[in-house]
């Protein structure tokens, strides 16, 4: 199932602005609130629906990433993707997103359905912790980011990761739900 509009609006937890209510927005809002109120993340370090733009065979595409956490230098250090299916089937897509989100890959990523989660080491692609208790506190995340070995992707690596990410988003094999889901979004559409 893809994210679709529910026809209403709600107040965004992070910005206080009115935003479109969608099938996934309540989950994104709950994750943001958990990170801030229970895990100690500063609100100004979190951004929702960060557009990940990429090019495949000359065509521009984009996909919003649910939450991205930035360090004090405005570098992405944590990517969070909400999924509505089996957590494990979204791990590789989430790692690819974290590798592509900035000039340097974010060192850690989380895929969650808000009931379960996989904390991913982006460099290795390994799941390093599971369950909602795997969501690191702000202090733990800063320590993990400081200790991570971060290396920019080569052009060839970026191309490979982009193609994998594109495939996981259903762009090469059609949409996940046939006619019930919207077509893949090209940038500028």
Q: How would you portray this structure in words?
A:
With 189 residues, the protein is of the alpha+beta class. It has one domain (5-180): tt1808, chain A (Alpha-Beta Complex), CATH 3.90.1570. Helices cover 25% and strands 30% of the residues. It has helices at 25-38, 91-100, 138-147, 155-168; strands at residues 5-11, 18-22, 46-56, 59-70, 76-82, 108-112, 117-121, 127-130. The chain has a six-stranded mixed β-sheet, with helices on both faces. Strands 1-2 form a two-stranded antiparallel ribbon. Strand 7 (117-121) and strand 8 (127-130) form a beta hairpin. Helix 2 (91-100) crosses helix 4 (155-168). The chain is globular, with a radius of gyration of 16 Å.
List key phrases describing it:
4 helices, 189 residues, single chain
Strand content: 25-35%
Radius of gyration of CA atoms, rounded to a whole number: 16 Å
Mean pLDDT over the full residue set: 85
Low-confidence stretches: 171-184
Order of helices and strands: EEHEEEHEEEHH
Category from helices, strands and their pairing: alpha+beta
- Tell me what the CATH architecture is: Alpha-Beta Complex
Question: How many domains would you count in the coordinates?
Answer: 1
Write down the CATH class: Alpha Beta
Secondary structure: number of strands: 8
| CA distance, first residue to last residue | 21 Å
> What topology, given as strand order, has the largest sheet?
3-4-5-6-7-8
Helix content: 25-40%
Please summarize the sheet with the most strands: 6 strands, mixed
CATH level 3 topology: tt1808, chain A
Shape: globular
- Helices, by number, come to 4
């Amino acid at each position: 199932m893809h994210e679709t509009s529910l026809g209403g609006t709600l107040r965004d937890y992070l910005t206080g602005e009115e935003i479109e209510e969608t099938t996934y927005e309540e989950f994104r809002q709950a994750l943001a609130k958990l990170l801030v109120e229970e895990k100690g993340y500063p609100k100004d370090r979190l951004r929702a629906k960060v557009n990940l733009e990429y090019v495949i065979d000359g065509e521009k595409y984009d996909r919003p990433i649910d939450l991205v956490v930035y360090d004090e230098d405005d570098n992405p250090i944590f990517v969070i993707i909400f999924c509505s299916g089996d957590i494990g089937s979204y791990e590789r897509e989430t790692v690819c997103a974290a590798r592509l989100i900035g000039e340097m890959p974010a060192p850690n990523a989380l895929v969650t359905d808000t009931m379960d989660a996989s904390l991913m080491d982006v460099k290795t692609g390994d799941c390093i912790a599971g369950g909602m208790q795997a969501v690191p506190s702000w202090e733990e995340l800063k320590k993990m980011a400081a200790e991570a070995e971060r290396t920019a992707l080569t052009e060839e690596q970026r191309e490979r990761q982009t193609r994998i990410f594109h495939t996981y988003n259903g762009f090469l094999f059609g949409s996940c739900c046939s006619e019930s889901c919207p077509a893949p979004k090209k940038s500028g559409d």
